[in-house]
Design a protein that fits this description.
Blueprint: H1 2-23, H2 27-89, H3 93-177, H4 180-237
Length: 247
Protein backbone atom coordinates (compact mmCIF):
# COMPACT_ATOMS: atom_id res chain seq x y z
CA UNK A 1 0.00 0.00 0.00
CA UNK A 2 2.77 2.42 0.94
CA UNK A 3 4.76 1.73 -2.21
CA UNK A 4 1.57 2.00 -4.28
CA UNK A 5 0.65 5.45 -2.94
CA UNK A 6 4.16 6.89 -3.03
CA UNK A 7 4.84 5.26 -6.41
CA UNK A 8 1.75 6.83 -7.95
CA UNK A 9 2.62 10.25 -6.56
CA UNK A 10 6.21 9.85 -7.76
CA UNK A 11 4.97 8.98 -11.26
CA UNK A 12 2.71 12.03 -11.26
CA UNK A 13 5.60 14.26 -10.26
CA UNK A 14 7.90 12.76 -12.89
CA UNK A 15 5.24 13.09 -15.61
CA UNK A 16 4.57 16.73 -14.71
CA UNK A 17 8.27 17.57 -14.64
CA UNK A 18 8.95 15.90 -18.00
CA UNK A 19 5.98 17.63 -19.62
CA UNK A 20 7.04 21.06 -18.31
CA UNK A 21 10.65 20.59 -19.34
CA UNK A 22 9.64 19.57 -22.86
CA UNK A 23 7.37 22.60 -23.29
CA UNK A 24 9.36 25.10 -21.24
CA UNK A 25 9.91 28.53 -22.73
CA UNK A 26 10.44 30.50 -19.54
CA UNK A 27 12.61 28.55 -17.05
CA UNK A 28 11.47 30.67 -14.11
CA UNK A 29 7.79 30.07 -14.82
CA UNK A 30 8.47 26.39 -15.43
CA UNK A 31 10.26 26.00 -12.10
CA UNK A 32 7.55 27.91 -10.23
CA UNK A 33 4.91 25.64 -11.77
CA UNK A 34 7.02 22.61 -10.87
CA UNK A 35 7.14 23.76 -7.24
CA UNK A 36 3.37 24.30 -7.20
CA UNK A 37 2.74 20.83 -8.63
CA UNK A 38 5.21 19.23 -6.23
CA UNK A 39 3.57 21.03 -3.31
CA UNK A 40 0.18 19.76 -4.48
CA UNK A 41 1.52 16.20 -4.73
CA UNK A 42 2.94 16.47 -1.22
CA UNK A 43 -0.47 17.60 0.03
CA UNK A 44 -1.98 14.51 -1.60
CA UNK A 45 0.67 12.35 0.06
CA UNK A 46 -0.01 14.02 3.42
CA UNK A 47 -3.70 13.18 3.05
CA UNK A 48 -2.85 9.54 2.28
CA UNK A 49 -0.51 9.35 5.26
CA UNK A 50 -3.12 10.99 7.52
CA UNK A 51 -5.72 8.45 6.40
CA UNK A 52 -3.33 5.58 7.05
CA UNK A 53 -2.45 6.94 10.49
CA UNK A 54 -6.15 7.36 11.25
CA UNK A 55 -6.84 3.74 10.27
CA UNK A 56 -3.93 2.64 12.46
CA UNK A 57 -5.36 4.49 15.44
CA UNK A 58 -8.76 2.84 14.89
CA UNK A 59 -7.18 -0.61 14.86
CA UNK A 60 -5.19 0.28 17.97
CA UNK A 61 -8.45 1.26 19.67
CA UNK A 62 -10.06 -2.00 18.57
CA UNK A 63 -7.06 -3.89 19.92
CA UNK A 64 -7.31 -2.17 23.29
CA UNK A 65 -11.06 -2.85 23.48
CA UNK A 66 -10.49 -6.52 22.66
CA UNK A 67 -7.71 -6.79 25.24
CA UNK A 68 -9.85 -5.05 27.86
CA UNK A 69 -12.81 -7.28 27.05
CA UNK A 70 -10.63 -10.38 27.19
CA UNK A 71 -9.32 -9.33 30.60
CA UNK A 72 -12.83 -8.53 31.81
CA UNK A 73 -14.26 -11.90 30.76
CA UNK A 74 -11.25 -13.57 32.28
CA UNK A 75 -12.05 -11.85 35.57
CA UNK A 76 -15.69 -12.92 35.29
CA UNK A 77 -14.65 -16.51 34.68
CA UNK A 78 -12.38 -16.39 37.72
CA UNK A 79 -15.18 -15.01 39.88
CA UNK A 80 -17.60 -17.67 38.62
CA UNK A 81 -15.11 -20.42 39.42
CA UNK A 82 -14.52 -18.90 42.88
CA UNK A 83 -18.27 -18.84 43.51
CA UNK A 84 -18.61 -22.43 42.31
CA UNK A 85 -15.86 -23.51 44.68
CA UNK A 86 -17.61 -21.78 47.57
CA UNK A 87 -20.93 -23.48 46.72
CA UNK A 88 -19.25 -26.86 46.36
CA UNK A 89 -17.65 -26.35 49.75
CA UNK A 90 -21.12 -25.61 51.17
CA UNK A 91 -22.58 -28.74 49.65
CA UNK A 92 -24.51 -26.90 47.00
CA UNK A 93 -23.26 -28.80 43.97
CA UNK A 94 -26.22 -27.95 41.73
CA UNK A 95 -25.78 -24.23 42.19
CA UNK A 96 -22.02 -24.69 41.84
CA UNK A 97 -22.53 -26.34 38.48
CA UNK A 98 -24.40 -23.25 37.27
CA UNK A 99 -21.50 -21.01 38.16
CA UNK A 100 -19.09 -23.41 36.52
CA UNK A 101 -21.17 -23.13 33.33
CA UNK A 102 -21.03 -19.34 33.64
CA UNK A 103 -17.26 -19.62 34.01
CA UNK A 104 -17.12 -21.64 30.79
CA UNK A 105 -19.21 -19.01 28.97
CA UNK A 106 -16.91 -16.28 30.26
CA UNK A 107 -13.85 -18.25 29.19
CA UNK A 108 -15.28 -18.69 25.70
CA UNK A 109 -15.85 -14.94 25.49
CA UNK A 110 -12.34 -14.37 26.76
CA UNK A 111 -10.90 -16.67 24.09
CA UNK A 112 -12.98 -14.91 21.40
CA UNK A 113 -11.68 -11.51 22.42
CA UNK A 114 -8.15 -12.91 22.64
CA UNK A 115 -8.48 -14.08 19.02
CA UNK A 116 -9.76 -10.64 18.03
CA UNK A 117 -6.89 -9.01 19.89
CA UNK A 118 -4.42 -11.28 18.08
CA UNK A 119 -5.89 -10.28 14.72
CA UNK A 120 -5.86 -6.59 15.63
CA UNK A 121 -2.30 -6.89 16.92
CA UNK A 122 -1.20 -8.26 13.54
CA UNK A 123 -3.01 -5.43 11.76
CA UNK A 124 -1.41 -2.87 14.06
CA UNK A 125 2.03 -4.26 13.29
CA UNK A 126 1.41 -4.23 9.55
CA UNK A 127 -0.17 -0.77 9.45
CA UNK A 128 2.53 0.65 11.71
CA UNK A 129 5.12 -0.52 9.18
CA UNK A 130 3.13 0.96 6.32
CA UNK A 131 2.66 4.23 8.20
CA UNK A 132 6.36 4.53 8.99
CA UNK A 133 7.23 3.97 5.34
CA UNK A 134 4.69 6.56 4.25
CA UNK A 135 5.99 9.08 6.78
CA UNK A 136 9.55 8.44 5.65
CA UNK A 137 8.55 8.88 2.01
CA UNK A 138 6.64 12.03 2.84
CA UNK A 139 9.62 13.49 4.69
CA UNK A 140 11.83 12.73 1.70
CA UNK A 141 9.35 14.51 -0.59
CA UNK A 142 9.42 17.51 1.72
CA UNK A 143 13.22 17.51 1.63
CA UNK A 144 13.11 17.33 -2.15
CA UNK A 145 10.71 20.27 -2.22
CA UNK A 146 13.15 22.29 -0.11
CA UNK A 147 16.00 21.29 -2.43
CA UNK A 148 13.84 22.15 -5.44
CA UNK A 149 13.13 25.63 -4.10
CA UNK A 150 16.83 26.23 -3.48
CA UNK A 151 17.71 24.81 -6.90
CA UNK A 152 15.02 26.98 -8.45
CA UNK A 153 16.71 30.15 -7.18
CA UNK A 154 20.09 28.93 -8.46
CA UNK A 155 18.76 27.93 -11.88
CA UNK A 156 16.81 31.17 -12.33
CA UNK A 157 19.95 33.16 -11.50
CA UNK A 158 22.01 31.07 -13.91
CA UNK A 159 19.37 31.44 -16.61
CA UNK A 160 19.34 35.22 -16.27
CA UNK A 161 23.14 35.33 -16.38
CA UNK A 162 23.14 33.12 -19.46
CA UNK A 163 20.59 35.40 -21.16
CA UNK A 164 22.73 38.43 -20.31
CA UNK A 165 25.82 36.74 -21.73
CA UNK A 166 23.93 35.87 -24.91
CA UNK A 167 22.84 39.49 -25.29
CA UNK A 168 26.41 40.69 -24.74
CA UNK A 169 27.72 38.26 -27.34
CA UNK A 170 25.03 39.35 -29.80
CA UNK A 171 25.98 42.99 -29.20
CA UNK A 172 29.66 42.22 -29.68
CA UNK A 173 28.88 40.37 -32.88
CA UNK A 174 26.76 43.25 -34.12
CA UNK A 175 29.54 45.72 -33.34
CA UNK A 176 32.10 43.60 -35.13
CA UNK A 177 29.87 43.37 -38.20
CA UNK A 178 29.19 47.11 -38.36
CA UNK A 179 32.40 48.53 -36.93
CA UNK A 180 31.68 52.11 -35.79
CA UNK A 181 35.37 53.03 -35.98
CA UNK A 182 35.11 53.07 -39.75
CA UNK A 183 32.33 55.66 -39.51
CA UNK A 184 34.44 57.66 -37.07
CA UNK A 185 37.38 57.52 -39.45
CA UNK A 186 35.24 58.84 -42.30
CA UNK A 187 33.87 61.58 -40.08
CA UNK A 188 37.40 62.49 -38.97
CA UNK A 189 38.55 62.64 -42.59
CA UNK A 190 35.66 64.92 -43.44
CA UNK A 191 36.60 67.28 -40.59
CA UNK A 192 40.23 67.29 -41.74
CA UNK A 193 39.12 68.31 -45.24
CA UNK A 194 37.02 71.11 -43.75
CA UNK A 195 39.99 72.25 -41.65
CA UNK A 196 42.24 72.16 -44.73
CA UNK A 197 39.69 74.18 -46.68
CA UNK A 198 39.58 76.77 -43.91
CA UNK A 199 43.37 77.03 -43.88
CA UNK A 200 43.41 77.36 -47.67
CA UNK A 201 40.82 80.10 -47.60
CA UNK A 202 42.85 81.87 -44.93
CA UNK A 203 46.00 81.66 -47.00
CA UNK A 204 44.19 82.83 -50.11
CA UNK A 205 42.78 85.80 -48.22
CA UNK A 206 46.21 86.64 -46.87
CA UNK A 207 47.85 86.46 -50.33
CA UNK A 208 45.22 88.76 -51.81
CA UNK A 209 45.85 91.41 -49.16
CA UNK A 210 49.60 91.28 -49.59
CA UNK A 211 49.23 91.50 -53.36
CA UNK A 212 47.11 94.64 -52.95
CA UNK A 213 49.85 96.24 -50.84
CA UNK A 214 52.38 95.13 -53.39
CA UNK A 215 50.35 96.82 -56.09
CA UNK A 216 50.37 100.02 -54.05
CA UNK A 217 54.14 99.79 -53.69
CA UNK A 218 54.47 99.18 -57.38
CA UNK A 219 52.30 102.24 -58.13
CA UNK A 220 54.49 104.40 -55.88
CA UNK A 221 57.58 103.19 -57.65
CA UNK A 222 56.04 104.05 -60.99
CA UNK A 223 55.19 107.53 -59.82
CA UNK A 224 58.78 108.03 -58.63
CA UNK A 225 60.07 106.84 -61.96
CA UNK A 226 57.77 109.19 -63.82
CA UNK A 227 58.80 112.11 -61.62
CA UNK A 228 62.49 111.45 -62.15
CA UNK A 229 61.96 110.99 -65.85
CA UNK A 230 60.17 114.30 -66.00
CA UNK A 231 62.99 115.94 -64.09
CA UNK A 232 65.55 114.56 -66.51
CA UNK A 233 63.59 115.80 -69.44
CA UNK A 234 63.28 119.26 -67.90
CA UNK A 235 66.98 119.44 -67.30
CA UNK A 236 67.91 118.48 -70.82
CA UNK A 237 65.75 121.28 -72.39
CA UNK A 238 67.00 124.15 -70.15
CA UNK A 239 69.26 126.89 -71.85
CA UNK A 240 72.94 126.29 -71.35
CA UNK A 241 74.94 128.87 -69.37
CA UNK A 242 78.06 130.49 -71.04
CA UNK A 243 81.23 128.78 -70.02
CA UNK A 244 83.26 132.02 -69.64
CA UNK A 245 80.94 133.80 -67.26
CA UNK A 246 79.66 137.40 -67.67
CA UNK A 247 81.57 140.25 -69.24
Amino acid sequence: MASSILGRISNLVRANVNAMIDSAEDPEKMLDQMIRDFTSNIAEAEQAVAQTVGNLRLVEEDLKEAEDASAEWGSKAALAVQKADELNAGGKATEADKFEELAKVALRRQISFEDQAKTYRTQVTQQTDVTEKLKDGLNKMREKLTDLKQKRDELVSRSKMADAQVQVQKSIKSISVTDPTSDLSRFEERIRRQEALARGMEEVGSDSLESQFDMLDDASDDLEVEARLAALKAGSTAPALPSGGTS
